Structures are given as structure tokens and as C-alpha cells.
Amino acid sequence: MGSIYCIMGKSSSGKDTIFKLLLEREDLKLNRIVSYTTRPIRSSEKPGEEYNFVSIEEKDKLIEAGKVIEIRKYDTVHGPWFYFTVDDGCIDLSNNDYIIIGTVESFVKIRDYYGSDNVLPIYIEVDDGVRLSRALERERRQENPKYEEMCRRFLADQQDFSPENIKQARITNIFNNDEDSDVTCQRIAMFIKNRKG
User: Fold this and answer.
1) What pLDDT, in 10s, does the model give residues 1-10?
2) 66 pLDDT tier (thresholds 50, 70, 90)
3) Residues in Cβ contact with 79 at an 8 Å cutoff, skipping those fewer than 6 apart
4) 68-76 and 30-32 as β-strands: parallel, antiparallel, unpaired?
């Protein structure tokens, strides 16, 4: 039976980089679960890679069809943005292992949907000062920087990823990523290999 590894962390914790590094490792044979979002695409993103970018109407049709496993709404300075996971027929746990980026809330709902034996959390932890520097640098590189949204996300993460929420979700696989994502990736790869046996 395969597993779903749910990568979590506050914004600018390096989870996207680690996610890509883990996917590139042929020894792990991980398949990507691509989440869905209604937020605007960033200049560095490609549809179907980081996210499936959909309209509000497309999101509503997926909900009506009973395909949405979990959904989160963020009231941003640019209006509401939705992020969600869809049972779109791409997951075959009888033959494959998967990796997805999510939040504590999405991890719990995916775990409840597919079973606690099949869904494992991987939490990426980074010092808040380091995260803030990374977030600012990333936003500066955008064609139209959204500094207000960056600050909102940073503050929201303090609540979403609070120690209480981490404990309540029974997340114990925690990896520090203050320095080098390659080193962090190697430690996570060993965790996954040990899980596979």
C-alpha cells in the first residue's frame, strides 16, 4: 500500500523547494498531487505544476460534483482566494506513493479521507526572522509585488501553524530548514525510505 506525504510549513519555510527536490529523487519514486487554487498565477509559476489554477465557477462545479476533499478560504487584500484538494482520479495508493503541499487543516482532512495509516505529515520549521527575509526577497522579484498580502500571510501562519494546532493534529515529523534545503531534503528522504522499509 502506498503513502501520501503531506509537506507543511509556514510561508517561505522552503517547503516548495524541498517538495521539488524530493520529487526529483528517482530513489523515492514519489508522484505529485497538484492542489487547486483560485488565486492569480505568479509570474514564476506554470499551470498544473505548483497548482491547478481554476475560476470560482470551476471550483463550485467541483464541490457540487463531490470531488473536493478539503478546501480553505483566505480573505486576502485582493479578495477571497481558495485552495483545495480534489479527488480527480489521479491517486492510486495501491501502486504508488505521493507527495503534496498543504496546511495543518488540509493534512487532517486528507488523512481523514485516505486513512491515518496512508497519510504522513512532514513539517518544515524555520526561524521567523529567516522566513520574513526570504518572503520579502521573493516578493521583490515579482512583477507586481503584493507586500500587503505577504504580511497578511506571515501573520496568519502564526495562528494556522500554532504549537497547539501542530499538537492537536498529531504532527511529530518536524525538520528544521534554517540553513540548507539540500540537507533538509536528505533527512526527509531518509525518513521516507525508512517508512518504505
Assistant:
1) 899 999 999 9
2) very high
3) none
4) unpaired
